[in-house]
Amino acid sequence: MTTFYCYSKCSTCKKAEKWLKEQQISYNKIDLVEQPPTKAQMLDFFAKSDQNLRYFFNTSGIDYRKMKLKDKIDTMSKEQAAELMSQNGKLIKRPLMVDDTKVTCGFNTAVYEKNWL
């Protein structure tokens, strides 16, 4: 089953969810802020992706900037990143869409068409 992690106040998440419904794609919706993925889940998501850690971070988010993660991310281990993200879902780029074999962050129609249709 595909899982769609989102934040209810995020306009990008709303666009992605609208697209998913238009395509009649089934998914399990989870609020990223209320119920962030666990550390183990984040490590699994990293393993399913060929992207670097920065791809998973909400680099325009307030918490990301407050924590000055821009200066720390390049030396951060996957375990450290997963721990941070599991404690604060607002650090994760949204929406986060995952299934058994793949993961995408953010919403781009072309990327969704390639991965989720």
TrEMBL record:
PROSITE patterns linked: ARSC
Coiled coil: none
Cleavable signal peptide: none
Keywords: Disulfide bond, Oxidoreductase, Redox-active center
Alphabetized Gene3D superfamilies for the sequence: Glutaredoxin
InterPro entries reported for this sequence: Arsenate_reductase-like, Thioredoxin-like_sf, Tscrpt_reg_Spx/MgsR
GO molecular function: oxidoreductase activity
UniProt EC number: 1.-.-.-
Annotated family: Belongs to the ArsC family.
PANTHER family hit by this protein: ARSENATE REDUCTASE, PROTEIN YFFB
Record protein name field: Transcriptional regulator, Spx/MgsR family
Lineage summary: Bacteria, Bacillati, Bacillota, Bacilli, Lactobacillales
